[in-house]
Design goal:
Strands 1, 2, 3, 4, 5, 6, 7, 8, 9 and 10 form a 10-stranded mixed beta sheet that branches. It is built from 12 helices and 10 strands. The protein folds into 2 domains: 7-216, Spore Coat Polysaccharide Biosynthesis Protein SpsA, Chain A, CATH 3.90.550; 219-332, no CATH class. The N and C termini lie far apart (43 Å). The protein is α/β, with parallel strands linked by helices. Keywords: Transferase. It comes from Leifsonia shinshuensis. Pfam families: Glycos_transf_2. One of its GO terms (molecular function) is transferase activity. InterPro entries: Glyco_trans_2-like (IPR001173), Glycosyltransf_2 (IPR050834), Nucleotide-diphossugar_trans (IPR029044).
Length: 333
């Protein structure tokens, strides 16, 4: 057994009916022996996951297993886990993805250099067809403040995913992910930024998000409320921090207006949901200064203008472009 000191990091993983894939998760968790605490939450699985977690934890003295009696989704499961954290920092990981083997070492280096409130690292995204791309983070190592962090999130330079970030427990607050399930990752990240003064950016790639059939990102039925809740949380935080109004408008453009129109078409949602998404997008777009937004992103501003111009014909314009995009991506692989 290694005599190296444990890192003051808790790893939180929530499970719900993972089936046999729980063994894959436990295998990579076993490689993170440097973490001072492991918190595994079974969110009322019906496949024996809680029993398997308890059996595994018996061989790992720093592991805590929480078995919830009722399923309420990942937001509540993570909130329950946060209550059990006994370390200075927390890392939230999904059970069906691939954390980098050296992720803890990367986070350890970041927190030893100035004790930041948050660490924003980099992450990859692997789509269901095997294609990979960068999903989060920036290629630089620097410490920034609250205002700059919020600005970068609103500009889309840094995304609101949990798994590429390390949180100081004190900046999470109580119930950081709400009680329901509307963009709880993004809401939790924005809230943590508001409570932080030092945010360290790391070039290290710590995670690969793996898209799978049935994942939220592939659900055909868009939840427009999720987008609205997250938008409102971020806009309120930005205004309290004095973030430039053009940056706020640009965020509302790409995060909400374009998304609620684009996502239903991309996912093949029902016609009524596609129409509702276009309607919501047009309402939002009419409130924005698209000319000013173009200074931050010409493509996004042009996309917004197309939605306003073609309205309900938007799917007819978008689908050929998506087809060409997908063909080119397959050709390049």
């Amino acid at each position: 057994m290694s005599n190296d000191p444990l890192l003051p990091i808790s790893i939180v993983v929530c499970f719900h009916n993972p089936g046999a894939s729980v063994e894959h998760t436990l295998a990579w968790l076993g490689g993170f022996a440097a973490a001072a605490q492991l918190i595994l939450v079974d969110d009322a699985s019906g496949d024996g996951t809680a029993e398997r977690l308890r059996s595994w934890s018996a061989q790992h003295r720093h592991c805590t297993v929480i078995a919830l009696a009722e399923n309420h989704g990942p937001a509540r499961a993570r909130n329950v886990a946060v209550e059990q954290v006994r370390t200075e920092y927390v890392w939230f990981v999904d059970d069906d993805d691939e954390p980098a083997p050296d992720a803890l070492a990367a986070f350890g280096r970041a927190i030893q250099d100035g004790t930041p409130d948050l660490v924003f690292a980099r992450a990859r995204f692997r789509s269901a067809d095997g294609a990979e791309r960068w999903a989060d983070g920036v290629d630089e190592t620097v410490v920034i403040g609250r205002h700059e962090a919020l600005t970068r999130v609103l500009r889309g330079d840094i995304q609101g995913f949990l798994w590429s970030k390390l949180f100081r427990r004190s900046v999470l607050g109580d119930e950081p992910f709400g009680r329901e399930h509307p963009q709880e990752d993004f809401v939790g990240v924005v809230g943590a930024i508001e409570r932080s003064t030092r945010i360290a950016l790391s070039q290290a790639s710590v995670y690969t998000y793996v898209e799978r059939p049935g994942s939220l990102s592939r659900d055909r039925r868009p939840d427009f409320r999720r987008y609205a809740v997250a938008r409102d949380v971020a806009v309120s935080a930005a205004r309290r921090a004095g973030v430039d109004g053009v940056v706020v408008d640009y965020f509302r453009l790409w995060f909400y207006a374009i998304a609620v129109a684009f996502v239903p078409v991309r996912r093949g949602a029902a016609a009524a949901e596609v129409s509702e998404g276009i309607r919501l997008a047009k309402v939002e777009l009419r409130r924005l200064d698209l000319s000013a937004c173009a200074e931050l992103g010409r493509g996004a501003a042009a996309h917004g203008r197309i939605i306003l111009l073609v309205g309900r014909l938007y799917p007819l314009v978008l689908k050929p472009a998506l087809l060409l995009h997908d063909l080119l991506r397959r050709f390049r692989r």
